[in-house]
Task: inverse folding
């Protein structure tokens, strides 16, 4: 199985001309998508607060968060992301995958359309 990356375009929500296309490592273990600080600065992503995260080595830190627009594999929409260190990793997290209606096919190392779930209500 292993890891894989996808190409995506991330943009400023208020000014979509401020955008960057980059590779994102698909990381279903990451809650949120993460952009390096320099990419977030390039698109003018405005910090909306801080989010507490547990890193793979067990450390707990607070990272800045922002809302951005993302386009990948023909799917697009707004999503929440974390702003990591300049030059840091670019990750596609689980929340963004769910928001875009995508799932991971680990054997084929690709993203596939996902079916969402709702409670059944009788009217």
Result:
């Amino acid at each position: 199985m292993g890891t894989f990356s996808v190409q995506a375009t991330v943009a400023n929500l208020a000014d979509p001309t401020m955008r960057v296309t980059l590779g994102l490592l698909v990381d279903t273990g990451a809650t949120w998508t993460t952009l390096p600080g320099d990419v977030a600065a390039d698109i003018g992503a405005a910090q909306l607060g801080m989010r507490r995260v547990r890193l793979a080595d067990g450390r707990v830190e607070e990272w800045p968060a922002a809302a951005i627009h993302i386009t990948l594999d023909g799917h697009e929409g707004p999503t929440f992301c974390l702003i990591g260190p300049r030059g840091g990793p670019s990750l596609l997290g689980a929340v963004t995958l769910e928001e875009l209606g995508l799932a991971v096919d680990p054997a084929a190392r690709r993203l596939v359309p996902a079916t969402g779930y709702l409670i059944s209500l009788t009217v």
Observations:
- The chain has a mean pLDDT of 95.
- The CA atoms of residues 28 and 94 lie 5 Å apart.
- The chain is about 10% helix and 50% strand.
